[in-house]
Write a structure and sequence with these properties.
The protein is of the alpha+beta class. The protein has 2 domains: about 150 residues, Glutaredoxin (3-Layer(aba) Sandwich); about 150 residues, 3-Layer(aba) Sandwich (Glutaredoxin), CATH 3.40.30. The protein contains 11 helices and 12 strands. It has a 4-stranded mixed beta sheet with strand order 4-3-5-6, with helices on both faces. Strands 8-7-11-12 form a 4-stranded mixed beta sheet. α4 packs across α5, α6 crosses α8 and α8 packs across α9.
Length: about 350
């Protein structure tokens, strides 16, 4: 069995450079081979000398005059495991996409990874490419390099509409999710009914602790919901699901904007004139059912990290600031409304890109 370390060395030799590295012990946050491999190769291709968890460097061979061989300006490295079905690892398809865009692709078969990995690296940046579809593949290249062909492919394949729909998967007490809501909120205020946002609250089907865990019967079967941030989040998810369901998106947004400022549901409902007793009745009678349907939606979308955002079905891949989000959304209009030309103020620093 070829180890990851040996496999990476072999790829370096085939590409014409030597990779020197020291790999530390795994931690619970580096549990999968694929994630660890991606982090390692990204650091290697970036020529980082002193990364936090992995040390490595790329040493290019010298030519006859004694100088280093110049690496390619743009290159895609595609690595995939043996016996991988074409529905997951379609090399000929990825090769065709690369050829159409005009970027060299090198491919390697490796039995030390579980799924395909595609990396685009240039002289000054590196990125992981999504190979699930042509548009997703081209979008990564477009964003990283501004390549004309890649950007054209993305534009030609966008699912455009008169009203753009946003699916927002969050946890009500997740700081990253709340930051993303703060990014979307001013864009919603700007575009109004031209933008529809549907929140889904993330509840896991298995409990890691009793805090935040609930098992009840829904539609004749036992359903388990677990909120990562405990009982308070389980109840707040129900509250927000009820507000959205029965009072609509606009009231939900005003409530969320208030709640994310002070985390005081009673004060926010009072300020907005929301009937607290009616919402509490909904929490008791409908809350579990509403969250169960959200859980099914999370499973279908494989959206288990807060926040996860889709625009007309495509994952949001931009920065977490209102201006970037507005620009991303406006690409999906059949005809861009005038509001798209209005600049939204920037705080100067985008919200962190982490997830709960």
């Amino acid at each position: 069995m070829v180890t990851m370390e040996k496999g990476v060395k072999e790829i370096g030799e085939k590409e014409g450079f030597e990779i020197k590295f020291k790999v530390p012990r795994f931690t619970r946050w580096m549990g999968t081979t694929v994630i660890f491999f991606i982090l390692f190769v990204v650091m290697t291709f970036l020529y980082i000398q002193k990364p936090t968890r992995i040390t490595g460097a790329v040493v290019f061979p010298t030519n006859q005059s004694g100088g280093n061989v110049t690496p390619p300006t743009r290159l895609i490295t595609y690595i995939y495991p043996p016996n991988c079905p074409d529905t997951i690892c379609n090399l000929s398809q990825v090769q065709a996409w690369s050829d159409e865009i005009g970027i060299q692709l090198n491919s390697y078969l490796a039995d030390w990874i579980r799924g395909p990995v595609a990396l685009l690296y240039t002289q000054d940046k590196v990125g992981i490419l999504d190979v699930s579809g042509k548009k997703q593949f081209a979008d990564g290249i477009c964003r990283l390099t501004n390549d004309e062909n890649a950007c054209r492919i993305v534009e030609e394949n966008l699912n455009k509409s008169k009203v753009v729909k946003v699916d927002l998967y969050v946890m009500s007490y997740c700081p990253f999710g709340r930051q993303m809501e703060g990014v979307v909120y001013p864009v919603k205020k700007l575009l109004k009914d031209k933008l529809e946002v549907r929140p889904y609250f993330i509840l896991y089907p298995q409990c890691s602790s009793q805090n935040g865990c609930e098992t009840k019967e829904v539609d004749g079967e036992n359903v388990t919901l677990w909120a990562m941030h405990g009982d308070k989040e389980l109840e707040e998810n129900k509250r927000q699901a009820c507000i959205y369901k029965y009072l609509g998106e606009d009231i939900w947004w005003e409530y969320v904007h208030c709640f994310n400022e002070n985390s005081d549901p009673s004060t926010c409902m009072e300020q907005l004139g929301i009937d607290a007793s009616a919402i509490n009745n909904c929490i008791e009678s409908k809350g579990t059912t509403l969250l169960y349907y959200d859980q099914l939606a999370c499973s279908k979308a494989n959206a288990w990290g807060s926040p996860t955002v889709f625009i007309n079905g495509d994952p949001y891949t931009g920065s977490r600031d209102p201006e970037s989000f507005k620009d991303f959304v406006c690409r999906y209009f059949i005809e861009k409304p005038a509001e798209c030309s209005q600049e939204l103020g920037s705080s100067g620093t985008p919200a962190p890109s982490g997830q709960c």
